[in-house]
From TrEMBL:
SMART domains: AAA (SM00382). Keywords: ATP-binding, Nucleotide-binding, Transport. Residues 9-241 form the ABC transporter domain. It holds the Pfam family ABC_tran. PANTHER family: ALIPHATIC SULFONATES IMPORT ATP-BINDING PROTEIN SSUB, TAURINE IMPORT ATP-BINDING PROTEIN-RELATED. It comes from Aneurinibacillus danicus. GO terms for molecular function: ATP binding; ATP hydrolysis activity. This is ABC transporter ATP-binding protein. Coiled coil: none annotated.
Length: 264
């Protein structure tokens, strides 16, 4: 089997220009191979094109050029095997549906029977720790709880690939830490491929098996990939964690991006 076939996602020389002019590429020469089941992080300064790249992978926007394959098939739009978790859960949840109904929405659209829907939503509500809140409406939930509902709903649809665009950026530090650990636990259980966008170095090292660092835009590309071999769950206070943090941070500083580094 060739190297390419083992990969779930293969991106070659991909570029995007919003205005169609080649000299105004937001991202360019993006080359990336993400094996099935990997937890991959896209890390980069604000405005470098992380969301652009993730939205192309989701199929929400078109690429201007280059190649993009999932399991050897060229991708031309959205697909059931991919799902996005957005930064703002309010935009993703239906305010008139309660927690369980929100989680079951996609299944209902697919005409999954009520009994099966209930058993699937039971499982994912438990996984994200919301079983006791299933009757609540989104307006009765905290930001962290809403984000968990969104995650449970995406997981209930059972996509192979989870795309996450700074999903915890709006949460307070404590809630963020809890939900990050939950995501690791879920990923360990489900073995899904995750592409997670962040501009927070600590979050990147806490979560990812590999971190792709995007250069400052315009014309941004993936300028380095870090392998993070620390075992999960990771301890942000461990010296080994700190060593990697310093390496990644100095990478940013060395490339004139220090102003975009998030410190804790
Ligand atoms: N629909 C659009 N039309 C034109 N330009 C756009 C559009 N969307 C994004 N851009 C531009 O593309 C560049 C990259 O934007 P993008 O949102 O992908 O960056 P990002 O890395 O996700 O930033 P952030 O960390 O702030 O979310 C920016 O200069 C932005 O202004
Ligand atoms: Mg973005």
């Amino acid at each position: 089997m060739s190297k390419v076939q083992k990969n779930s996602i293969v991106i070659k020389d991909l570029f995007k220009s919003y205005d169609g002019k080649a000299n105004e590429n937001v991202i360019q020469e993006i080359n990336l191979e993400i094996p099935r089941g990997e937890f991959f992080i896209l890390l980069g300064p604000s405005g470098c094109g992380k969301s652009t790249l993730l939205n192309i992978i989701a199929g929400f926007i078109s690429k201007s050029g280059g190649d993009f394959f999932i399991q050897n098939k060229e991708v031309r739009g959205p697909g059931k095997e991919r799902a996005m978790v957005f930064q703002q859960p309010d935009a993703a949840l239906f305010p008139w549906l309660n927690v369980r109904e929100n989680v079951e929405f996609g299944l209902k659209m697919q005409k999954v029977s009520k009994v099966e829907r209930n058993s699937i939503s039971d499982k994912y509500l438990r996984l994200v720790g919301l079983s006791d809140h299933e009757k609540k409406l989104p307006e009765e939930l905290s930001g962290g709880m809403k984000q968990r509902v969104q995650l449970a709903r995406v997981l209930a649809n059972d996509p192979e690939i989870l795309l996450m665009d700074e999903p915890f950026g709006a949460l307070d530090a404590q809630t963020r830490r809890t939900i990050q650990q939950e995501l690791i636990r879920i990923w360990t259980h489900t073995k899904k491929t995750i592409i997670f966008v962040t501009h927070d170095i600590q979050e990147a090292i806490l979560l990812g098996q590999r971190i792709g660092i995007m250069s400052k835009g315009p014309g941004s590309f993936i300028e380095a990939i870090y392998d993070i071999t620390l075992p999960y769950p990771r301890d942000i206070t461990a010296p080994s964690f700190n060593d990697i943090y310093r390496k990644v941070q100095s990478h940013f500083e060395g490339n004139g991006m220090a102003e975009n580094v998030v410190n804790f």
